[in-house]
Amino acid sequence: METLYKYLDVNGGLAMLEHHNLQFTNASKFNDPFDCHPALFDYSYIPENKNDWPIAKFLSFKGEIDMVNLRNNTWICCLSKVYDSLLMWAYYNCHKGICIGLNVEAVLKSCHYGFFGMMPPSLEVVKYKDILQKPNYFKSLPSWKNLWTTKAKAWEHEQEVRLITKNPLWVRAGRDIPNELKNEKLVDGREIRHYPQLTADCFESVYLGVNIFPRNKTKIIKTARKLNPNIKIYQMTTDPEAFRLKAEQI
Q: What is the mean pLDDT of each run of 10 residues along the chain (250 residues)?
């Protein structure tokens, strides 16, 4: 797996290229309510223990709380295996956005231990399922990766691969918070995103949406080539022979 892709609207794409970074979002703040949810595990199959101690109900409760805490302390960057998904392009300004191709090996070198503190990011491929088959929590440990990598079949078109880290250093935390929370005195730390910086060689390619505005196209090309003069830039076009997209190098 040499290249992974990040779909963005124009503003997000410009920001990523200008600041040459990646956005990590807390695992509890995704748009899919099932994503990384502790209920993905079954906590009812308590292992046998002498004298029923600790109490079975306590073990079940503790198992679920441990997964809640794990979710709250995990930050994820979502990428894709493909750059030509019709649905993914549609999500970002009706094909007016961009898609950035990232060299995975270079990204993993950039996101090293010093950026994250407790845990450098791991690369995990998402699995898609029709039926929620809950693994036994007490037999799955330490396979808690199921929490991060199990999604409904409806999302399969994303072909998602995730960079995952726990307890990132706050030195890379962003200063932006959702607009609806700006008047709040206290903001949940899970609302804050983290932005580790990447080296220029991480940025391998940029794909421009079919409907991108000319002025935005010019900005993106200028910014991308300033970051990495060797970056490949493609214009996405519609294939007249099929319901698919084609990339033409500029």
A: 92 94 92 90 79 75 89 94 96 92 93 60 91 80 76 94 85 63 66 88 97 97 96 96 94
What's the structural domain count of the chain?
1
CA-to-CA dists, residue 94 to 8, 10, 97, 119, 153, angstroms: 11, 11, 8, 36, 23
At residue 208, φ and ψ (nearest 5 deg) are -100, 135
Q: What is the b/e burial string over 197-208, where b = at least 16 CB atoms within 10 angstroms of the residue's CB?
A: ebeeebbbbbbb
State which residues form the domain around 137: 3-249
Dihedral angle computed from the Cα positions of residues 238, 156, 154 and 65, in that order, rounded to the nearest 10 degrees = -140
Residues with Cβ within 8 Å of 120's Cβ and at least 6 positions away in sequence, in order, are: 111, 112, 113, 165
